Amino acid sequence: VPDIIHAHVFTVARAAWAIARYLDVPWFLTEHSSAFHRGLASRRQIRKASRYLQRAHRVLPVCHFLKEAMEVRGIKTQFSVVPNAVDTKIFFPVSARTTGGFRFLIVALQTEVKGIPDLIKASAMLSMRTTVEWSLDLVGDGPERGRYEALAAQLGISGRLRFLGLRTKSEVASLMRQSHAFVLSSHAENHPVVLLEALASGLPVVATRVGGIPEIIGPKEGYLVPPGRPEELARAMGMMLQRAGEFNAGELARNAASRYGLEPVGRQIHEFYEAALAEKTSSHA
Fold first, then answer.
1. φ, ψ at 190 (rounded to 5°)
2. pLDDT digit string (tens) for 124-174?
3. Which of 28, 58, 66, 189 has minimal Cβ neighbours within 10 Å of its Cβ?
4. CB-based contacts of 208: which residues, under 8 Å, 6+ apart?
5. What's the pLDDT score for residue 78?
6. How far apart are CA 276 and CA 285, in angstroms?
7. For 37-42, which contacts have Cβ atoms below 8 Å and span 24 or more sequence positions?
8. Largest alpha-carbon pair distance within the chain?
9. Nearest 5°: phi and psi at 194?
């Protein structure tokens, strides 16, 4: 019999509650769904989830933005924010980056919410503004990939962009160690793990100011721009081209490991487990 039930995402709240009740053990739920702030969950789904989430020992949203979005939708429970985590045995920096031109990297699904057209347009603007040699690798796939490749060709920057398709986690980690900066052009996010992976790899970041991203990226980590603004994204990428050397890869990686490494994040969750089990023991005494 398990000591704890720990579920993920509000759609399984009823099942988690039922199992925990049957086994007489505490239960937790980590929430990282974008359904709350993107309006992807119906009122009925939210009401149903709320009924069971309020019975959880604790609900753990991955960022404060998501916690507030859940509260706005009427979820009332015991919240504690616990961020996503990164495996620093896979994602770590190197002492020297690849030469032969500055390399930007994005890892994202090829869908509208990731703002890929904004990034392609920004890249076209950047190509007309600088003589610095640079390129952009796009990792990911999706239904819009063909259209995005066509847009890059239309704007005359196919030679600077590489659409690399889906890659394994270890391949992504290797690409990060070969890159100089990470870029994320999303229109909506919660607490994207890919940014934690980039920071753990020592990469400064250019990203949009949406969702929980400002909780990850500050002036010491990179530049934030409004979503849907290719002009501002191009400007920030240009700044990164000129100033990337001001960001210390080792410091970025150390800070990411201390905030988001498996051990510190796991420690937070373990402390909640211990408190819940102690409370159970006390109540049954």
1. -105, -90
2. 999 999 999 999 999 999 999 999 999 999 999 999 999 999 999 999 999
3. 58
4. 115, 184, 185, 186, 187, 189, 224, 225, 226, 227, 233
5. 96
6. 14
7. 37/65, 37/66, 37/69, 37/188, 37/190, 37/211, 38/113, 38/188, 41/10, 41/73
8. 73
9. -60, -30
Q: Are 195 and 215 in contact (CB under 8 A)?
A: no
**What is the pLDDT, as a whole number, of residue 40?**
87
SS3 call for 189: coil
CA 144 centroid distance within chain: 21
Q: Percent of the chain having pLDDT more than 70?
A: 99
Q: Is the pTM of this model over 0.85?
A: yes
CA–CA gap between residue 28 and residue 200 (Å, rounded): 27
The token duo for 78 is 């015991």
Gap between the Cα atoms of 272 and 182, Å rounded: 34
Instruction: Report how far residue 30's alpha carbon sits from residue 83's, in angstroms, rounded to the nearest whole number.
Output: 10
**What tokens were used for 87?**
């495996």
- Cite the DSSP H helix spans in 24-163: 35-38, 43-53, 64-72, 116-129, 145-154
Contact 118, 228 (CB under 8 A): yes
Question: Looking up tokens 């819009």, which residue turns up?
Answer: 144
Percent of the chain clearing pLDDT 90 (strictly above): 91
The kind and range of the H/E element at 143 are none
**Residue 234, amino acid:** A
